[in-house]
Design a protein that fits this description.
Layout (H helix, E strand, L loop, with lengths): L1 E5 L3 H13 L3 E6 L2 H11 L3 E5 L9 H12 L4 E6 L4 H9 L5 E5 L6 H12 L3 E3 L1 H9 L12 H11 L4 H8 L3 H14 L10 H11 L3
Helix pairs in contact: 2-3, 4-10, 6-7, 7-9, 7-10, 8-9
C-alpha cells in the first residue's frame, strides 16, 4: 500500500513514517508543500495520501485545494486530511466532493496511534473518517433553529457517529443498542431530513453533510 505524506512541519512529517511502515504502508514520498505533493502523486500513483490542511505559501487552505486536485487527477486516491483546529468549512468542502475514501482528523489524533491507524484503514477501505472532536464541537454549538431541530437526542447521537464514518454495527456497540435499533433511528433521520429512498444521492452522505452544514 503506497502512501504519500504532505506536511510542512518536519517533525510531524518524519514522525509519521515509522508507525506507517510498521503497519505495512510503503511511504514512497514526503512533501512540504502542495506543488511537491501533487508532483509526488503524479509520479508515484499512491494508494493513499496524508495531507496537512495548512501549507505554504499562505498557510490557509492549500492542503484542501491540493487534496481536491489530487483526487481529480487520481479519483481512486484515498485522502486523510490533518488539521490543527476544528475547521467546519474544510470538513464540509472535503465531503462535498464525495465522501468515499476521505478522512478529516485533528493532528492531536496522530499521537493516539491506534485511533489514527484505525481511521486511516477505514479511509483506505473505502469509508469516511471525521474526527470525533470535530463532531463533538459542532454538536455542542447546535442551535434550536437548526435544520436538525426535529431529530431526537438519540437520532443526533446516531447521526454524529455516522458523521465520524462509523458503520451501523460499530454505532450499535458504542451506544449499547441493537443494530436493528440503529437501522430504525437512521430511517427516522432520513425521513425527518426529507431524504427519500428514490433519491439518487447517497442518503447517508447527504445526512452527514446536512449535519455538518447546519447553522451553528
Amino acid at each position: 500500500m503506497r502512501i504519500v505524506i504532505a506536511e510542512d512541519e518536519p517533525l510531524l512529517r518524519e514522525g509519521l513514517a515509522p508507525p506507517l511502515r510498521a503497519e505495512g504502508f510503503d511511504v514512497v514520498a514526503t512533501a512540504n508543500g502542495p506543488g511537491a505533493f501533487l508532483a509526488a502523486v503524479d509520479e508515484h500513483r499512491p494508494d493513499v495520501a496524508i495531507v496537512d490542511v495548512r501549507m505554504p505559501p499562505s498557510h490557509t487552505d492549500e492542503g484542501i485545494v491540493a487534496a481536491v486536485e489530487a483526487r481529480r487527477r487520481q479519483p481512486d486516491l484515498a485522502v486523510l486530511v490533518l488539521s490543527a483546529y476544528v475547521e467546519q468549512a474544510f470538513a464540509t468542502d472535503l465531503l462535498a466532493h464525495g465522501s468515499a475514501r476521505l478522512g478529516y482528523l485533528l493532528k492531536e489524533r496522530v499521537g493516539r496511534v491506534e485511533e489514527f491507524l484505525a481511521a486511516l484503514h477505514r479511509v483506505v477501505g473505502g469509508g469516511t473518517a471525521v474526527d470525533p472532536e470535530v463532531i463533538g464541537q459542532l454538536l455542542a454549538r447546535s442551535q434550536p433553529d437548526s435544520t436538525l431541530a426535529s431529530l431526537s437526542p438519540r437520532e443526533l447521537e446516531v447521526l454524529a457517529l455516522m458523521a465520524e464514518g462509523l458503520g451501523n454495527a460499530t454505532i450499535a456497540e458504542k451506544l449499547f443498542i441493537t443494530e436493528s435499533a440503529v437501522h430504525k433511528h437512521i430511517r427516522g433521520i432520513f425521513a425527518k431530513l426529507g431524504l427519500a429512498p428514490e433519491d439518487r444521492t447517497d442518503r447517508r452522505v447527504a445526512a452527514v453533510l446536512c449535519y455538518l452544514e447546519s447553522p451553528r
